[in-house]
Amino acid sequence: MSDSKKYFMPMIIIGILFFIYGFFTWLNGTLIPYLKIACQLESDFESFLVATAFFIAYTVMAIPSSFVHRKIGYKKGMALGLIIMALGSLLFIPAANARNFNMFLIGLFIIGTGLALLQTASNPYISLIGPIESAAKRISIMGIFNKCAGILAGLVFGYIALSDADGIEAKLAALDAAAKQEMLQELASRVILPYTIMAVILVAFAICIMLSSLPELKEEDDDMSSQNTISGKTSILQFPHVVLGALAIFLYVGVEVMAGDTIISYGKSLGFELSKARFFTQITLFFMLVGYVIGIFTIPKYFSQSFALRVCAILGVIFSFGAVVTNGFTSVLFIASLGLANSLMWPAIFPLAIDGLGRFTKSGSALLIMALAGGAILPLLYSKLSESTGTRLAYIIMVPCYLYILYFAVKGHKVGKPIAKH
What we know:
Layout: H1 3-6, H2 8-38, H3 44-47, H4 49-90, H5 92-98, H6 101-128, H7 135-162, H8 165-172, H9 177-188, H10 192-211, H11 219-222, H12 240-261, H13 263-269, H14 274-277, H15 280-298, H16 305-325, H17 328-343, H18 345-354, H19 361-370, H20 374-389, H21 398-410
């Protein structure tokens, strides 16, 4: 059996998992303004805790997730991750009934915990089922599943939750206390049905994975680049390029979440109605899709993963400056264009960072997944900075992030390697 046929079904299964990642991850962009209204939050900083609760789960649970996969394997670990996500989704029911923001955050943390299990398995899986030099191409294909799901999530949930948000905000200001509580309860209850449906789908797919023929990656499969592994290593922290890669992931996820999750609130701060601003995240994801398609057709045939990362980092610097020095929809469009700059960063950084780890691949993957905490921390820093500089100028925080990613693309991914393959 040829490799393409052998890995066709695993690619489809992992593709569906990436679709699930995208759907839940990019729901946050809509949840942030939605919960700000439904839970009557006082500031953007509070509402951005949505992203914090979601992404901090990766840091807390990535290492435990790698232990789980070692004990029960990737296949069972993925199914367990889906079940945990379903439990987090069901917590949205009592959270909505009580209109309790903290309970929503706990639900998001539990969903993030399930995603940590899935991500810790699926990213090294898709990287190592073929040549490491073409891993960015395979991850780009997975990225199309991810971002199509994100676009769909924003359109569907935005229609359910935010289609008449401007009118609701205007009415709330004029209602007495009892009528206001009734309207807020109706708004909060809108998430119950969609999250119940998502929980059922997650459980059904977990069962499908357990019944599937998804092959396990054995330790020798994890060792595909063992010729680059330095003998005598006892800890993943002895691989400098992995540590540098983890910081690159941290900063990349931070700027990606800022571009996708703050753009609706940013548009509103510029005077755009929520009924229009709710589509801004979809524009960002569209630019990411364009980047993924470019990656599929060009890597590694025309240029390497590291070269693609350099180009994306440079575009990130340019677009960030563009957002800061322009106004109105032009500035919004520069933020959305960061989707193009961010598109090939995960597909390039992840395989460059785990290349040559051999038996340390699972530990390296866990370390990189922990770095997704950038999505929890950097949006909060942006929010705090915006209180003193304004929402537009605060985006300058992205520039040093992209400059570090450029360093990793040029030199950082080679540090400590005995043989420079890229």
